[in-house]
Amino acid sequence: QVQLVESGGGLVQAGGSLRLSCAASGRMFSTYAMGWFRQAPGKEREFVAAISWNGGSTYYADSVKGRFTISRDNAKNTVYLQMNSLKPEDTAVYYCAAAAADWRTVRLRLHNDGMDYWGKGILVTVSS
User: Tell me, what's the pLDDT at 1?
Assistant: First the structure.
């Protein structure tokens, strides 16, 4: 079992930056692929970014590519999402998630909400 706790959300102006953090419990963190997802008001939850267990592979949604960067520190059991050049359409509740599967399988599951563990989410609001 993995517990995930997001932090770092808040209100930012368009064009600004925020860094989200997700702290994970448990010894198995370094074996999990990690991802960030978001859910805007009135919309379904969508994939944002993912990273393999050792950080060697990353994958981004087209909508955030070039603006967001996912990274992890296995020594700290933490995954990050650096968000730059934020837009009002980035406003959403952001969720951290973990998957106990190999990277190839995780990639297939990302767009189907197919992660194994989820955080409770944190709100990011981008004002225009």
Answer: 81
**Cβ atoms within 10 A of the Cβ of 7, count?**
14
**Bridge partners, 99 (sequence order):** 33
| Cβ partners under 8 Å of residue 66, min gap 6 | none
pLDDT of residue 97: 97
Instruction: Give the separation between CA 16 and CA 78, rounded to whole angstroms.
Output: 23
Alpha helices in the chain (DSSP H): 103-109
What residues are paired with 7 via a beta bridge?
Answer: 21
Q: How far is CA 104 from CA 11, 13, 28, 36, in A?
A: 35, 36, 19, 17
Could you report the average pLDDT of every consecutive run of 10 residues in the chain (128 residues)?
A: 95 98 91 96 96 96 98 96 98 97 92 90 97
User: How far apart are alpha carbons 39 and 26 in whole angstroms?
Assistant: 26
Q: What are phi and psi of 125, to 5 degrees?
A: -120, 125
Q: Supply 118's token pair.
A: 């989820």
